[in-house]
Design brief:
Largest sheet: 8 strands, antiparallel
Number of strands: 14
Order of helices and strands: EEHEEEEEEEEHEEEE
Strand content: 35-45%
Radius of gyration: 14 Å
Strand order of the largest sheet: 9-5-6-7-11-3-2-13
Length: about 150
Amino acid sequence: MNTLELKAPVNGILVPLEDLSDEVFAHKMLGNGFAIEPITNLLHSPCDGKVIQMHKSLHAITIENSHKDQILLHIGINTVNLQGVGFKAFVKVGDHVRSAQKLIEFDLDLIAKKKLCLSVILVCLNQENRAPITINYPLKKNLFKTDDTIAIL
């Protein structure tokens, strides 16, 4: 089976999904992954692939690689309620993207002012027939940058 390195989609501090307030993500109902508390406002692709889905409010995007692994990137929790305000997409469905390519810009201040969770969440979808994801949790809270490998799928 092929392995896939997943890079940090934003610069920030790595957080386990279990620490999130949203039960769907915390209980891994969509799949395993990780979250990052962002210190920058640009979402990047964690791997090479194709954009197969983008929510109309621009808070969520799914990338599929050449092995059909699907990676959901979700900006914040309940940010769908912003209805796209504060989000700017640089790609669209059908676009081929490279690892670390800029995908979406988001307004951290607006999200914080609305008292919404800022975490950027990465979840590996459709992983029923795959080995478990290996996540590189550091011993202490380290800052990850968009070119740092966080997980191997």
